[in-house]
Structure formats: C-alpha cells, structure tokens
Design a protein that fits this description.
mainly alpha, about 55 residues, elongated
C-alpha cells in the first residue's frame, strides 16, 4: 500500500506501483545476490587502477 505521504516522498515508487508485479516476475533473489557478491569479489581482486592485481 502506498499512502499519500509515500506518494509525496517517493514519486517514482508511486509511478511504478501498479506495474510492480510485472517487474518482479523474473526477479530471483539468489541470482541477484550472486551477481552482487561476484561483483564485490571482482572489485576486491583489482588494483586501484582497475587492472587485475598481480
């Protein structure tokens, strides 16, 4: 439920609320967490210049 107060503070959320189920259809928590963790691990293996550490 989006209240009038939410709508005032979060206009973008309010704009997509009616389509949220369509957006969430393909969302898999495990896949998203895997992508985040992989990205973080990859960042940790690079030097400050962005080149692979080595």
């Amino acid at each position: 439920m989006v209240t009038a107060e939410d709508a005032a503070e979060l206009p973008r959320l309010t704009a997509i609320k009616d389509d949220w189920r369509a957006y969430a259809t393909d969302y898999e928590v495990a896949d998203e967490l895997d992508a985040i963790i992989t990205g973080l691990l990859d960042r940790g293996t690079r030097s400050a210049s962005g080149a692979p550490a080595g």
